[in-house]
Recover the amino acids of this structure.
């Protein structure tokens, strides 16, 4: 029987939808919850575990929200070990859980969290056993995560079935959240973990740096601005490519947040998910987004403010993806990824879509269905 160790950081990503740019630290998590954020790590873990239904898997996990509740909900009879020391789970709980699972002889540790959780796992067990992350955080710079929760389940299923899956070292990286909230990405290397690698399903380490192809960005911005319609709300996503559009319009931009504009005016900056829903209710709206360099995510990494409800309201036909051809080429043929938290919506947004790559210039590119 395959022994699967499971750890859920229940507060991972809780700061994303309320524009806090992360969830590290008890104070940040408490503030996010007070602002109405809903924890999503458990739901995302459930999506991964549903892929394992009917397979010969024994789940070993920590109590309650750290794993036992979701494992049971998925139809498993988990072996529950350890205990949670305080009311809210902490980094210490994650570290102790990882060490305990290794002592139980698990075949792999599956964990849900963000880069902070990956740091905790790395500190606890380094490369003693293979690990795989279910992406649930705001910032996902590490290479230890599957591209979506379902993809994480697919990789585990391959291992359970005895299929050949390469194991290799992947970097654990995390950023300074305080600097991130000020618009600066300052990533640091913390070590490596042993991760099952299946190129369709495993996330690549995020490419750093700002896009330097200024002329191409100007052309993309000119095309987007020319096509903007009057009396329509435009949700402007994060990233330097979208920032070029805002700069050409002469509007202030939240590089690592989501802004809202209409009729060439800034309506709201660094919006939360709830604010976006309130502003766009019963209004015509479109979305302008770009992809994360090296990873290919257009939804679900650094822009959790774009809730499933908002994306359904906007509609696939009104989602405008912009990127340079250089950025697309660096994906080496890998598809774009939508990880909205709603599997059915992910499927609806999959398929071939146009990507604006210059002035009156676009290419067709595939969005994955996993």
């Amino acid at each position: 029987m395959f022994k699967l160790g499971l750890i859920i950081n229940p507060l991972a990503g809780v700061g994303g939808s309320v524009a806090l740019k992360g969830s590290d630290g008890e104070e940040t998590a408490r503030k996010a919850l007070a602002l109405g954020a809903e924890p999503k790590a458990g739901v995302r873990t459930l999506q991964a575990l549903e892929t394992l239904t009917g397979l010969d898997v024994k789940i070993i996990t920590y109590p309650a929200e750290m794993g036992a509740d979701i494992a049971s909900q998925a139809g498993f009879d988990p072996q529950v070990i350890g205990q949670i020391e305080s009311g809210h789970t902490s980094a210490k709980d994650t570290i102790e859980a990882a060490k305990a699972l290794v002592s139980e002889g698990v075949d792999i540790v599956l964990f849900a969290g963000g880069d902070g959780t990956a740091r905790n796992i790395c500190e606890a067990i380094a490369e003693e056993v293979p690990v795989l992350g279910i992406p649930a955080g705001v910032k996902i710079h590490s290479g230890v995560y599957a591209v979506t929760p379902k993809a994480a389940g697919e990789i585990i299923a391959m291992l359970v079935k005895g299929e050949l899956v390469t194991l290799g070292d992947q970097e654990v990286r995390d950023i300074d959240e305080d600097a991130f909230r000020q618009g600066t990405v300052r990533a640091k290397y913390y070590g490596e973990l042993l991760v099952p690698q299946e190129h369709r399903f495993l996330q690549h380490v995020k490419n750093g740096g700002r896009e330097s192809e200024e002329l191409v960005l100007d052309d993309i911005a000119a095309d987007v601005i020319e096509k903007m319609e009057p009396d329509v709300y435009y949700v402007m996503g994060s990233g330097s490519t979208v920032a070029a559009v805002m700069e050409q319009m002469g509007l202030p931009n939240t590089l690592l947040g989501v802004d809202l504009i209409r009729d060439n005016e800034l309506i709201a900056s660094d919006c939360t998910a709830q604010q976006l829903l309130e502003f766009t209710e019963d209004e015509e709206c479109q979305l302008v987004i770009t992809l994360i360099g090296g990873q290919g995510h257009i939804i679900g990494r650094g822009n959790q403010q774009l809730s499933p409800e908002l994306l359904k309201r906007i509609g696939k036909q009104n989602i405008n993806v912009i990127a340079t051809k250089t950025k697309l080429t660096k994906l080496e043929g890998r598809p774009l990824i939508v990880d909205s938290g709603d599997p059915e919506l992910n499927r609806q947004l999959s398929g071939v879509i146009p990507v604006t790559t210059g002035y009156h210039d676009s290419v067709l590119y595939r969005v994955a269905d996993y």
Observations:
- The chain has two domains: 2-197, 214-367.
